[in-house]
Design brief:
alpha+beta, 4-stranded antiparallel sheet, elongated
Length: about 100
């Protein structure tokens, strides 16, 4: 199953300096691990606010939530999940 996550950094609660280079590097490392494991299929940075959009593939929503919760920013409550939803194929591309 595929899922999409829209997240944002909680810059309204945490000052910019709280997002240290070491913390951001740890976040990137964890993203690479989840990508290598096949959970993250694609990831994009948001242009409207600090955050990301992730396309994930997993057997359940619980697995996706656990993976997102393993991110260093999420562990410190510095990341908010705005949207987490399962995706399904667009029907217009199926047989007529």
């Amino acid at each position: 199953m595929q899922f999409i996550i829209v997240s944002r950094r909680r810059t309204d609660v945490f000052p910019t300096e709280a997002f240290t280079p070491e913390l951001v590097a740890a976040e990137g490392q964890r993203v690479r691990e989840l990508y290598s494991a096949g959970l993250i299929r694609s990831i994009w940075r948001r242009k409207d606010t600090p955050g990301a959009v992730l396309l994930m593939e997993a057997g359940s929503e619980e697995e996706v939530r656990a993976a997102a919760a393993s991110l260093p920013l999420a562990q410190r409550d510095m990341l908010e999940i705005i949207v987490l939803t399962q995706l399904e194929p667009y029907p217009a591309f199926g047989p007529l």
